[in-house]
From TrEMBL:
<feature type="domain" description="HTH araC/xylS-type">
    <location>
        <begin position="214"/>
        <end position="315"/>
    </location>
</feature>
<dbReference type="Pfam" id="PF14525">
    <property type="entry name" value="AraC_binding_2"/>
</dbReference>
<dbReference type="GO" id="GO:0003700">
    <property type="term" value="F:DNA-binding transcription factor activity"/>
</dbReference>
<dbReference type="InterPro" id="IPR018060">
    <property type="entry name" value="HTH_AraC"/>
</dbReference>
<dbReference type="InterPro" id="IPR020449">
    <property type="entry name" value="Tscrpt_reg_AraC-type_HTH"/>
</dbReference>
<dbReference type="InterPro" id="IPR035418">
    <property type="entry name" value="AraC-bd_2"/>
</dbReference>
<keyword id="KW-0805">Transcription regulation</keyword>
<dbReference type="GO" id="GO:0043565">
    <property type="term" value="F:sequence-specific DNA binding"/>
</dbReference>
<keyword id="KW-0238">DNA-binding</keyword>
<protein>
    <recommendedName>
        <fullName>HTH araC/xylS-type domain-containing protein</fullName>
    </recommendedName>
</protein>
<dbReference type="InterPro" id="IPR009057">
    <property type="entry name" value="Homeodomain-like_sf"/>
</dbReference>
<keyword id="KW-0804">Transcription</keyword>
<dbReference type="Pfam" id="PF12833">
    <property type="entry name" value="HTH_18"/>
</dbReference>
<dbReference type="InterPro" id="IPR050204">
    <property type="entry name" value="AraC_XylS_family_regulators"/>
</dbReference>
Length: 324
């Protein structure tokens, strides 16, 4: 379902803060500059979700957005922002790169790193936001393609621009079934934009099942502590069937249940020996990492490591530096 937001429906003096709150919700700590006359502030956005992918159309006269140095908010997921300029001129800066973006150009940003975006007057843009884990690419690689102009002279960028335009223009007509079908092609196309833009043809030609495996494993690591981490949820997040999920993992010799349990046990093992958690009960640590009960956790821990959680904690207790 498409959600429309128009600050024109708000009192003029509330418009700037509404825009800032929306920016912070998406990107964490950020600053937004708007026209000094509140009566002149304009911002209209329409946003839809294709599973974990988000598409938007934006028309506003914001003058600048800056992501400052500092931690992300806990509920903001690291993602890649792909912007397609439709009208106006924008200037993007991230890392040591700067780019002037004009109608027809694509540009990428990472929301976790500081950036500056300046707008010349009113602009219209279509955007796509993709969680980093879905692209299955190293953050260091993504960091080399942000704030770089990707124009229509690049065939893959031109194809992506056309696809994004159609998605955004038709977002009000996209139903739940269509959304599930369109998300994966969108992810793969953006991945191709990144890899070809960097000249990494090896990654661009990488078999899709291998790229999918990397995305799945990254997603599991990010959500290990969540007790509802199931095969059904993982498959839905990656727009595949549960059968395809198990097939992808089996090709790599991975049993989903065993691997998730082993990863959770490793997290518990580290916390049991950490001075930062010396006052946390064993049961609390087990529960935090997805184990339903202390007896079950103790059984699987001893089966994996040959000692009970209590014996491991006692034998590997690390004293705080000031105690030592």
């Amino acid at each position: 379902m498409a959600v429309r937001f128009d600050v024109g429906s708000l009192p003029p003096n509330d418009r700037a803060e509404a825009i800032r709150e929306a920016s912070r919700a998406l990107n964490g700590r950020s600053e937004v500059d708007v026209p000094s006359n509140p009566d002149r502030i304009k911002a209209v956005t329409t946003t839809s979700a294709l599973g974990s992918v988000e598409i938007s159309s934006i028309h506003w006269n914001v003058t600048a957005i800056r992501r400052t140095v500092g931690p992300m908010t806990d509920d903001v997921e690291p993602h890649i922002f792909v912007g397609l300029q439709k009208s106006g001129v924008s200037r993007f800066a991230q890392g040591d790169r700067q780019a002037e973006i004009r109608p027809g150009d694509l540009v990428l940003l990472q929301n976790v790193n500081p950036y500056d975006v300046f707008f010349q007057g009113a602009v219209t843009a279509f955007t796509v936001r993709v969680p980093n884990h879905l692209l299955g690419l190293p953050p260091s690689l993504l960091g080399r393609i942000t704030a770089v102009r990707l124009g229509v002279e690049r065939p893959v960028a031109d194809t992506a621009a056309a696809f994004i335009s159609r998605l955004v223009r038709n977002q009000s007509a996209i139903g739940e079934t269509d959304a599930g079908l369109l998300a994966q092609p969108c992810i793969e196309l953006i991945r191709a934009v990144v890899t070809t833009g960097l000249g990494r043809d090896d990654l661009a030609r990488e078999p899709l099942h291998h790229a999918l495996l990397q995305r799945v494993m990254t997603y599991i690591r990010l959500h290990l502590a969540e007790r509802d981490l199931s095969a059904e949820r993982i498959a839905a997040e990656h727009h595949i069937s549960v059968r395809q999920l198990y097939l992808t993992l089996s090709r790599a010799g991975i049993s989903l249940g065993d691997w998730v349990r082993s990863q959770r046990l490793e997290k518990c093992k580290l916390e049991l020996a950490s001075p930062a958690h010396r006052f946390t009960t064993i049961e609390a640590i087990a529960y935090r990492w997805g184990f339903a009960s202390a007896p079950h956790f103790s059984r699987v821990f001893k089966a994996a490591y040959g000692v009970s959680p209590r014996e491991w904690r006692h034998g590997n207790r690390q004293l705080p530096a000031e105690t030592e």
